[in-house]
Amino acid sequence: MRQRWSTFLQWKEYEKQKITRKYFYEFRTLGRGGFGEVCAVQVKHTGQMYACKKLDKRRLKTKGGERLALIEKQILEKANSRFVINLAYAYEDRTHLCLVMDLMSGGDLKFHIYDLGKRGIRMERVVYYVAQITSGILHLHSMDIVYRDMKPENVLLDAKGQCRLSDFGLAVELPKGKKICQKAGTTGYMAPEILRQENYGMSVDWWSVGCSIYEMVAARLPFKDFKEKVQNEEVTRRTLEDDCKFQHSDFDAPVKDLISHFLKKKVQNRLGCRSGDDPRNHVFFKGINFHRLEAGLTEPPWVPKPNVIYAKDVDAFRTASEVEDVKLDSKDERFFKEFSTGAVPVRWQKEMIESGTFDLLNSSELNASCQESACFSRMCIIT
Q1: Residue ranges of E strands in the chain
Q2: Count of Cβ atoms closer than 10 Å to residue 127 Cβ
Q3: How many other C-beta atoms can be found within 10 angstroms of the C-beta atom of residue 121?
Q4: Phi, psi (5° rounding) for residue 310?
Q5: What DSSP assignment string belongs to 205-271?
Q6: Which residues have a catalytic role annotated?
Q7: pTM higher than 0.85, yes or no?
Q8: What is the pLDDT of residues 50-83, one digit of tens each?
Q9: 341-357: pLDDT as tens digits
Q10: Both ends of the chain: CA-CA distance in Å?
Q11: Which of 29, 32, 133, 192 is deepest in the core (most CB within 10 A)?
């Protein structure tokens, strides 16, 4: 018993070690955003591959993005679902705050809709992806989190063809039925109650899911055509006043019915918003066994090729100019410390088990040396 307790303490000490950039090998850039770049990284002693989202400290301060960055980090840390991007590590270096997350090498659904062969996604894949998206949204809602930025661009595919929700900078936690009236989201996906700046809750996510399903099938939004040059005010007017039309030939009866119920302008009539309402019971999902899907036992209808990069040319990504004249103070340092919490326990423990590191360090040959923590000490020093 004493030996097991000692081993447990050694593992917790190892888990709590300070994480720095020396803990990883860094590889190519995967993309760029408003606060920095995303690159592929590998944990040195387990070989586990991740994506590292780097947030430039000075750029964050210039744009006032600290609060959104911290919210995203906390939600990623809290979520534990195969349909939501999971956070493994959060750390800082001299110039950046870094979020190390699941590596999604299959690209985002927007790329698959518009840039991979014929525009749109075939129905077999749409059903599979929407089932996973729906499960991901329900997981967030179970934690009282409203996503507020559901769109194909934020749904990423991993190497096995499974999809996950990403980018939680606009998400908000609304406990105990609390509502909010803040305008947030992306034009074309925002629900009528957001556009009217009325009080809203989880309902807005289901509207965005409806818009996203429509886009997967028709390669356009319900109230804005592909590459249509139109003012945001006109898109807002259409969203509030016009009916959703199904002119694309690939809209069969089940998908039309599902979208129509998600795009009800009155919240009380919208699918997912009524008491006891579960979108997974809709006939659209009749071929999906959600218990098997949530256990990862359902084969995806499409799997990315390992030698293909499912993204636009990295050189075409928007580059961020340097911010030289921003001074960081003690308040900023406190924020950086709050952000940089190291390894996320559940994800880290999973990595240790799946990589074989746990078995290695608990094998009979290493048991004796581990008693004195020598093995762990050596493992913790990553150079």
Answers
A1: 24-32, 37-43, 49-56, 87-92, 96-102, 145-146, 155-157, 163-165, 172-173, 342-343
A2: 20
A3: 23
A4: -90, 70
A5: HHHHHHHHHHHHHHSSBTTB-TT----HHHHHHHHHHPPP---STT--HHHHHHHHHHT-SSGGGST
A6: 149
A7: yes
A8: 999 999 999 999 988 898 899 889 999 999 899 9
A9: 999 998 888 998 888 88
A10: 34
A11: 133
